[in-house]
Amino acid sequence: MTIKFRKDSEEISLPKAVAEHEPEMSELDMRLVLTVALRGGIEEDDLDGLAKTFGVSRTDMDISVSYLRGAGILAPKGRRTKTARASKGEEKAAEDKKAVTPKTRGPEDAPSYTSDEIKKVFKEHAELALLLNACQNTVGKVFNSVEANTVLVMRDYLCLEPEYILALMAYCKEKGKTSLKYMERMAYTLTDKGIDSYAALEDYLRRKDKFESSEEFLRRMFGVGDRALTAKEHSAFTSWSIDWELDTELIRKAYEMTVNAIGKPSVPYANKILEKWHSAGYEKPEDVPEPESPQGGSGEGSFGTDEFFEAALKRSYNRKMKGGGEDQLQP
């Protein structure tokens, strides 16, 4: 015989994540989930009263809330859940503020647990304990309480997937950055940029590696040296190596065309050439057509399309330099 609610009883809904994590949830976790479901949400200020009602400490309540947030059952900290207590005026004010203020999560608001609280969290929640162990194996050391707290912050406060956290730590370790503080700062920076899923992180790291592998070659070619790239140089290098995936020999051809035209390397000048070639679908040097002379002419003193384009670029570049402007071209 199936045990279920009466047909005439009022039903409540629970997130699907409850069913996924139910085997590892403590009695307090489940009571808190049911309370939130029955009330349609609770305020942070209610936690003291609930702790007394449930016969537990406020610390126990905070640990339970942190776990449920990290499991994706409760909304992350900073995202207010609409309840019957919030007036329409308050909701509108919150929406107006959201429209003009970018949402960021700073380390100053992140939770900080004592050593005993951290031990209790990992003891009561097997999923978090497994994540902590995997992080330690990835980095290659046993974490102290501060480092373990960083793992909790990434999982709960920043709401990052375990795969994301492990991939980020593995990448930092590979680059020789084994400080958990460094990893935490990188996590804040990435999430502020909207890179907050495992798929987005994978794409970002792939692009970053690809850029770094081509950057040294491009620096040498254009004589940039060790100085920091300007915003325009970084944008051009990113377009060539990542967005357009240009063949290095095609870039070299544009470089040679630049030096032949103006007598020195220029990233903006070469960028205009490569932009034109990319738009035309040229992928390798041999795809670029040789200049053609008009039919019936001797070829002397005449321009093919690429020669005309090169001359136009040179005139534009020279006008810009004579006017005291930057070493760049205007579109």
Overall description:
- This protein has 331 residues and is mainly alpha-helical.
- Among the domains are: 109-196, no CATH class; 208-322, no CATH class.
- It contains 15 helices and no strands.
- The chain has helices spanning 16-21, 27-39, 47-54, 58-70, 88-100, 115-124, 126-139, 145-157, 162-174, 180-192, 198-222, 231-243, 248-262, 267-280, 305-322.
- Helix 11 (198-222) crosses helix 12 (231-243).
- The longest helix is centred in the middle third of the chain and has 25 residues, at 198-222.
- The radius of gyration is 29 Å and the shape is elongated.
- Residues 78-103, 293-305 and 325-331 have low confidence and may be disordered.
Beta strands, count: 0
Give the count of helical stretches: 15
What is the helix content?
Answer: 55-70%
Beta-strand residue percentage: under 5%
Using the CA coordinates, give the radius of gyration.
29 Å
Low-confidence stretches: 78-103, 293-305, 325-331
- How far the N terminus sits from the C terminus, by CA atoms, comes to 76 Å
Based on Cα principal axes, name the global outline: elongated
